[in-house]
Amino acid sequence: xxxxxxxxxxxxxxxxxxxxxxxxxxxxxxxxxxxxxxxxxxxxxxxxxxxxxxxxxxxxxxxxxxxxxxxxxxxxxxxxxxxxxxxxxxxxxxxxxxxxxxxxxxxxxxxxxxxxxxxxxxxxxxxx
Length: 128
Prior knowledge:
Blueprint: E1 3-8, H1 17-32, E2 40-45, E3 52-53, E4 56-57, E5 68-75, H2 80-97, E6 105-112, E7 117-119, E8 122-124
Parallel strand pairs: 1-2, 5-6
Antiparallel strand pairs: 1-5, 3-4, 7-8
Helix pairs in contact: 1-2
């Protein structure tokens, strides 16, 4: 049930976001041993001039400033190593597909808890 939410400024050059999301989903599923049907990924563009980094506001996504913002939500039964591996997989996949340095990707993780997720028509419960 990993959910990957990505935010960035619009790109100056054309980027095929649907392909990026599909490849990211496949990479995360294969690299983590998770069924692809359980991987979700979204992308939202920030409004130009509505993202400050180092006190500077820009209109499109730079390669080396204004990091792409990624939020990973995954079950809390994953180990620290599992989470670290997922973070690396996400960063690698995005940096390979986008005109962005890997060092310009910011990812944070939030745990999802048993009985704290509603999916497929019911509250999900897992044993640890």
